[in-house]
Amino acid sequence: MALYAVPPKSQPLERRLTELDRLRSYLARQLGESAQPWTGALRRLAAAEAAVASTSIEGYGASVEDAVEILAGGHPAQTPADTQRIIAAYGQAMDRVATLADDRHFEWTRQTLLELHFLVCHPQPEAKPGRLRDGAVYVTRGPGRDPFRPPDAADLPHLLDELAGWLQAGDVSRHPVIRAAMGHLNLVSIHPFRDGNGRLARIVQSLVLAREGILRPEFVSIEPYLGSHTREYYAVLERTQGPAYDPDRDGGPWIEFCIDAHLSQATERRRWVLTAYARHDFCVRIAAAAGYPERFVIALDQALLGLPLTNAEYRREASVASPTAVQDLQRLRRDGRLEQQGAGRSVRYVATPGLRQEWSSSWESSQVKAAVDIEEESVKA
Questions:
Q1: Structure confidence by residue, pLDDT tens digits, 61-101
Q2: How far apart are CA 207 and CA 99, in angstroms?
Q3: Which of 90, 310, 312, 328 is the most buried (most CB within 10 A)?
Q4: Taking the alpha carbons of 30, 35, 37, 41 in that order, is the dihedral positive or negative?
């Protein structure tokens, strides 16, 4: 038994990969280590969106705002405790991906996959985190549709070793997006674990791309696209896999779908960046007009991004002590820029309707928005 083979190159796909590389190079310049002031907030938002999307595909629902809090160690009351644990575990697995991304001693092994599975599934003892499944399983596909039959349990050690070996050194001349997609397809089709195979496959895809060194894991993830196109995601997997594990089947449709996802996600991230520049400039003008210290821009920008701001986050981002953070946030509250929610340790701050309206009016009239709208129309065409 072998792995699904990488489809041969084609000019249409290569042209789309070239366009994707252009977008990714732009994002790398804007979101790299020489970060803009707003990069940290975008990183937290991207990580939360990925966590919500990946876990929602498997039935665990939460808001992006709550996911930001969960990934920061909080416990929002609106999200069930089991979902909080699943999202936190996903975050821990992605933290591990970030550390492996630039580890020059890293090697893909079967143990790597077992370790990542343990991290993502440790809140689920019934999934036997970090252990291969025993016996045969059938993957259901919905009412009236035939289930998928993965390989026998006896074949799993060999298949995972083969997959790890391919991830380490196979088809290295092919585009990283292609290799990442094939790693995803092979792992989810082998289905080596009782549960969490989809989450793990998506994490492996992100790790392959993060190892490329262009963008951080949260910025290369296509989880948000998969979460909003779950029906199409499952349909193309079904079309590619067929009724049972068969690596002789054509992986072309799957590759096309993944490139679509990456192009869509990269275009959306570019919109994020252009909007972030305009939003930051708006916050600088607000701070200057009110005579605020420059650090107030951090609080205003994050609140307008839609992320609830805590004292701890503001202290970290602005590099101030707790008493200063309290004074700053309360001053913005008194001035009608921020609203306070909760009490005690659960206090967080959000933009007031007035501040949001000011930003909305500024954005609607900006040349940046016009440029973004034109670009989006050209992408759709």
A1: 899 989 988 998 888 888 999 999 999 999 999 999 999 99
A2: 10
A3: 90
A4: positive
- 116 in helix, strand or coil? helix
DSSP three-state, residue 331? helix
268 CB-near residues (< 8 Å, 6+ apart): 224
Q: Which CATH class is domain 292-380?
A: mainly alpha
Confidence (pLDDT) at 365: 78
Q: Where in the chain is the domain with CATH 1.10.3290.10?
A: 11-266
d(CA 276, CA 366) in angstroms, rounded, equals 13
Domain with CATH 1.10.10.10 in the chain: 292-380
How much is the pLDDT for 375?
54
pTM attached to this predicted model: 0.89
**DSSP designation for 174:** S
Fold designation for 11-266 = Fic-like fold (1.10.3290)
The radius of gyration of the chain from alpha carbons, rounded to an integer in Å, stands at: 22
pLDDT in tens, 193-231: 999 999 999 999 999 999 998 888 999 999 999 999 999
Using left for φ > 0, alpha for ψ between -120 and 50, and beta otherwise, residue 61 falls in: beta
> Could you tell me where the DSSP H helices lie in 191-290?
197-210, 217-220, 223-228, 230-241, 252-290
C-beta of residue 149 within 8 angstroms of C-beta of residue 224: no
- Give buried/exposed letters for 121-133 (b at 16+ CB in 10 A, else e): bbbbeebbbbebb
Cα 176 to Cα 167: distance, rounded to the nearest angstrom: 11
